[in-house]
Amino acid sequence: MTSIRKWQVGESLPEVTLAPVSRLDLIKYAGASGDYNPIHTIDEEAKKAGLPGIIAHGMWTMGNLAKLFTPYYEEGFVQDYFVRFQSMVFLNDVITLKATVKEKDEKAIRFAVAAVNQQGKEVIKGEAVFSLYE
Amino acid sequence: MYQHDIGKRSAKVKNVVERGAVKKFAEAIGDPNPIYWDEETGKRSRYGRNIAPPTFPRVFDYGVIEGLKLPSKGLIHGEQHFHYERPLFVGEELYCYAEVKDYYEKQSSMGLLGFLVIANNGEDPDGNLVFTSTSTIMINEAVRKAMSV
């Protein structure tokens, strides 16, 4: 098991590229989260709302992005996690998850985090502070 | 338009971090790590039990803030922040409530945008804060006019 502490300022955790966003992904997230806003699952409702088609829940993308830190829960936990929703995620988009060390000390590591689509556009970006146990 | 709602809170609602709900949520965000759902993995971990993913507080019931009227359509989720004192434990009880933290308006290319900041908080049974989940929701001019407020 690698340690999260080994990464230095400027280095990145291994990136994760997701499979193309599918309708089933969003139906599953709607059910698991209780967010049934139909713009995420029903084409006609998305179009009525002025969208070209259904869009992913921002929280689906934010939830996915957090899994970059899951392998390190023996060393600490995600104390703060902030994102700004910059751009919409559509069906079949291919999202890549990124985290780069911005600052670090004995107690915590601050990461810049982002989810980027196949055009290289940041769909969400923000910060995560991973608090380290002694 | 929401200035007078700042400071309003809902009554606390008891929630349980349910094992099945955590497992389903972890699957839905494509994070199958057994720390979330496998009892043995949880027992062997430093937590001695399973924990929930950081964005899991979306599923809790935070009650209703009396008098706060939100449009049913056209809200844009602009920003989201989670702050934790510690991870959430599977099986624990949390007392959750919502609070209107702020409201402000800004000129943008889409006209005057309203920014409503709502905090969803969770406390342990002794009243210690475990997490705060803060959402910034954007409300555009058209939606506000449609609500005629």
UniProtKB/TrEMBL annotation, chain A:
A biological-process GO annotation: fatty acid biosynthetic process
GO molecular function: fatty acid synthase activity
Cellular component aspect of the GO annotation: fatty acid synthase complex
Superkingdom of origin: Bacteria
Pfam families assigned: MaoC_dehydratas
TM regions (residue ranges): none
Matching PANTHER family: (3R)-HYDROXYACYL-ACP DEHYDRATASE SUBUNIT HADB, 3-HYDROXYACYL-THIOESTER DEHYDRATASE HTDX-RELATED
Protein name: Dehydratase
